[in-house]
Design goal:
Layout: H1 8-13, H2 25-28, H3 45-50, H4 84-93, E1 104-108, H5 113-124, H6 129-134, E2 137-143, E3 154-157, E4 162-166, H7 193-231, H8 243-256, H9 258-264, H10 266-279
Parallel strand pairs: 1-2, 2-4
Antiparallel strand pairs: 3-4
This protein binds zinc ion.
Organism: Meiothermus hypogaeus NBRC 106114
Protein name: Phage head morphogenesis domain-containing protein
Length: 280
Amino acid sequence: MLDSGTTPICRGLNGVIRPADDPIWERIYPPNHFGCRAGVRSLTAREAEARGGVSPLPPGLEVPPGFARPPTARWEPDPAKYPPELWEALQGKLAERIEIGREILELRGRVSAREKDQILRGLEGLRLSRWMEQNPIRTLEIASNLAQTRNRMGDYDRLTQSIRLLYPRPEGSWADEKPLGQLRAVSTKGSSALQAAAITLVHEFGHHLYEAMREETENRLFARYIQAKKEGRFVSLRARDGVLEWFSESLAAHRFFRRDFRKFDPATSAMIEDVLARLR
Ligand SMILES: [Zn+2]
């Protein structure tokens, strides 16, 4: 649009034709400034040819910061721009979606959309989707039997960074009402088979997280584990099987039974919250 209100940026760009895959769109996609009325129109190759073909860019293109975000760019809110209470509320509203193809590259197995959503909800609650995009689960396999692992509800393979989850689960592997500390595994406290599977998924994800954080965080986690052992604060029987199981069980308890877990083992609960916050 050309009139007396047209800025130098847009005057220079008027009529410019560039290929759709030109990286320049990352820098000049309108709005390019406050009150920008410019638009982009797509042309077929023949239409572009009829208008003289691809044109050179005007010299000295400077778009003010914050503008010219192409439609493919992801919006990330800036915490510095919000009061702390609002920021907290916003975080809740931005409830994350774990997507197959992004945070989890591939889903195998037959589950309905509803079952899938409920199983993934556990991971969504960790709010690590950004971290997971960089460190995705390669395959999540939901299987009705896990041949090699008797008595297991899931497993994590660190070589392939893949998780297998048993679902449907055998009777008696959920709805255990015992308190934290007296459970066989945290997942057995799930109120339904689906929630139990969601808890197991967070447990297996804990192994994935531990592997990825090993270098920076292992000493800290291990020190806390030794302390928990001294204090006899093992959230479940499974958590006694070493630092890896302890971390995964604690993560699952922190995610699903946060209030109880905070009472049961405040130091571990606080440490986990801190570890997660650093990754977000
Ligand atoms: Zn485990």
